[in-house]
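[worker-b] picked up task from shared queue
[worker-b] task type: protein-ligand structure
[worker-b] ligand name resolved to flavin-adenine dinucleotide; SMILES cross-checked against name lookup, match
[worker-b] sequence length check passed
[worker-b] input payload:
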Amino acid sequence: MHESDVLVVGAGPIGLEVAAGLKGVGVSYSHVEAGQIGATFGWWAPRTRFFSSPERLNLCGVPIPSVDQGKITGEEYQAYLREIVRQFGLEVRSYRRVVRVERDGDAFVVRTARSLHGVGGEKELERAQAMHDPAEGKGGEEYRARRVVLAIGNMHRPRMIGVPGERLPHVSHFFEGPHKYFGTRLLIVGGKNSAVEAALRCRRAGARVTISYRGERLDEQRVKHWLRPEIEWLIEQGEIGWLPHTVVREIRDGSVVLNDASGRSAPTVVETDFVLLMTGYVQDPTILEAFGVALEGPERRPAHNPRTMETNVPGVFVAGTACGGSQERARYFIENTHVHADRIVRAVTGTGLPVGEPEFGSLEES
Ligand SMILES: Cc1cc2nc3c(=O)[nH]c(=O)nc-3n(C[C@H](O)[C@H](O)[C@H](O)COP(=O)(O)OP(=O)(O)OC[C@H]3O[C@@H](n4cnc5c(N)ncnc54)[C@H](O)[C@@H]3O)c2cc1C
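[worker-b] inference finished, payload out:
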């Protein structure tokens, strides 16, 4: 049994920032992660760049070196996270997935199982099967702590669209990189950043790309301003096919049936070799529910006090994008959740927010 004052679950950027904060003030803590540190960036397509500027991704005030002053890739960020762990001497117990929790007086006893990957990405879809792998069940451990910080992220599973054929082998919810689609017909479903970026990269790599989107036009709020001119120009030139106001009705081997979103026109059939469903991701609430955290609203956001990050369950805190639940419209990013680490450290050490800090409710977007 590992005993500490605090158990931090999840070693994405914000979990690491919480751990560094706790260590900095001498609070005893344990830190477990289902995969490797920064596991979420491990399932991004190779060389995907952040939309956020490097300085907004800085952890604990340590600048991210950027050779060209541009946006960094997921791989570069993982390298940076490794340096943060080394520099601050953080001890992350990787490949340990929290699977169970029990109360023991005023403490929590948390059980982990040996895990082969982080929570999220294509492999998460295979997890039900992996759980039957004897290796997955071995190496379980117990952690006892009076406080638990859940920095577990919120992109655990794809947002399924629930149509026949969604699980066919040529259909994916994860963009693994453009090379796979060279010389093929690719239908991309979605109209936000991920869909547009995948369309641009695949088209440059020699795929014949068509986008199906339920909206009439690309949403200005949901597509980064530097992506819009290129995608709009390519659509205008007919270099990328554009099927606005369409929703997928059925995916078949070799084609996709699209309904007119308004229901006024007859369905159309689009021939395609591959289908990429860029329809977003949802949070797996299992662990939050196991702790008794209330999930609120349609996005099922964990109830918490934004001043302390403590949930409705005393002693259980949320940090990072985990606070957002299954965000329909992303509001929680790395850049506006760095502050969670400081709030949690203050709550745990009983120092509270200093006078003059913003009050309740206005803290989320700071
Ligand atoms: C293509 C793409 C581009 C993006 N670009 C940006 C961007 O530009 N800026 C931005 O801010 N965000 C971006 N995001 C979102 C980004 O991934 C998140 O903002 C970031 O990872 C959130 O950090 P986090 O520490 O809150 O959670 P995560 O990085 O998701 O870390 C959570 C960790 O918790 C672990 N975990 C979960 N459950 C358990 C459990 N039961 N037991 C043990 N460990 C567990 C997971 O394995 C994971 O490592 C992008 C996402 C995608 C897919």
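[worker-b] attaching auto-annotations
[worker-b] Residues 359-366 have pLDDT under 50 and may be disordered.
[worker-b] releasing lock
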